[in-house]
C-alpha cells in the first residue's frame, strides 16, 4: 500500500535524523556516566547500597528519556515547520496525520534504542553490584566483557568517523546495543571469581519489567512532545514535557488523594444534604476529570516495588501497557488536530 510506504519512509528519515543529532549521543554519554558513578554514590548509604543504586540508575534512565523526547521532537517537527522544509513532505502529498505518526515512530525507535543501550549498561553495573567495603571483590567477568564492549563500540565510532565519515553517535549506539547485550548474556553465567553461576540468581526479571515500563512512559512523553512541538518551539516543548512528567509523577498525591478525601466526606453526609450540583460534587468531578486527563506516570515507576523486593506480575503489566498505548493514541490525535490547523506555507 502507498500509505505504508510513505509511513516507513517518514519513520526511516526521522530515525536517521534523530540518531545523528548531537543531543542523542550527549544525553546517552551523560546517562552512562551517571549510571557508572552510581556505584560510588551508593556507598554513602548507611544500610542498603543496592537500593540506592537502583533508585539512581532508573531515575537517570527516566530523566534521559524525558530530555531526549523533548529535544528530538523539536528537532524533527518544530524546526522543520519553522524552516518550512515540511512543505517538501506535505506537498507529495503526504496526509498530515501520517506525517505526525511517522515522526513519532522515528522518535520512538531512537528512544527505545537509547533506553536499551543505557539499560544494558545499568544491568551490567547491577551485576557488578555496589562495593560497601574495601574487601568486596570486583566482578571480573563484568569488568572484562563490559569494558571490552564499551572500548569496541567507542573505538569503532571514532575509527569509522575518521576513515568513513560515519556519524559517531549513530555508530556507537547501533553497535553498542548488540555488543552490550552479548556482554550481559555472557556475564550472567559467571560469578565474580569466574565460577559458573546459577541463572536463577543472576538474572532478575523484575528489573527488566521495570525497564520495560520506563520505555512505555518514555514513549508516552515522546508522543506528547511530538504533539506539542507542532505548535510550540524548543523551550516551550521542553517545559511542557517536563511539566507533564512532574505532574504525572505526582498524580496520585494531587488528584487521587483529594478524591479519596472528598469521597470519605460525602459518604458521611445524609442523602438529603447531597446533590450532584453542589460545591463538593462539582469539586469531586473536577478532580476526577484532571485525574483522567493527566497521564499518571506513577503507574510506570516501579522502583518502589523493586526496593521493597515485591514481584511485578504480568497481570499488572497487562493493564499498564494498554494504558500507555491509550495515552500515546490520545497524544497523537491531539498532535494531528493541532497540525491540521497549522500554516506551514
Helix-strand blueprint:
Layout: H1 2-19, H2 22-42, H3 49-83, H4 87-90, H5 96-128, H6 140-164, H7 168-187, H8 199-202, H9 205-229, H10 234-249, H11 251-268, H12 279-293, H13 303-307, H14 314-340
| Helix content estimate | over 70%
Q: Strand percentage, roughly? A: under 5%
Radius of gyration: 23 Å
Secondary-structure element pattern, one letter each: HHHHHHHHHHHHHH
Give the CA-based shape: flat
Total number of distinct structural domains: 1
Biggest pleated sheet:
none
What is the end-to-end distance?
Answer: 28 Å
Structural class designation = mainly alpha
Average pLDDT over all residues: 84
Keywords:
mainly alpha; 0% strand; 14 helices; 77% helix
What does this structure look like?
With 345 residues, the chain is mostly helical. The protein has one domain (2-340). 77% of the residues lie in helices and 0% in strands. It has 14 helices and no strands. It has helices at residues 2-19, 22-42, 49-83, 87-90, 96-128, 140-164, 168-187, 199-202, 205-229, 234-249, 251-268, 279-293, 303-307, 314-340. The two termini are 28 Å apart.
